[in-house]
Amino acid sequence: MRVALHSILRDGAADGYENAHQRIPDDLDASFRRVGISDWSIWRSGRHLFHVVECDDFAAAMAALDTDPANRRWQEFINRYVDHFESTGDAAADMALGRVWRLRQQRGERP
Question: Which of 31, 36, 43, 64 is deepest in the core (most CB within 10 A)?
């Protein structure tokens, strides 16, 4: 499944946030693999961050990461940059992305 998240950076935190994401810790990557997260992309526009997470089951992955030591260390570290996440709903299903349209597909091009 693919889910979308939207977070907001603290004022003046963009450079630090981007620097922190040059490479995430290897133990966090291993935790992501273990819980079924296959990819996570982040785009930034000003203070707004747009995340797309590809995973087997987002709700299960987040539940498993809640007690994961690598994730707890990362959250403690990265939260100095993140002000908050915008709520898109209470359930992971509300965050699931369904493609509406894609230009490449309309053109008959390969993804």
Answer: 31
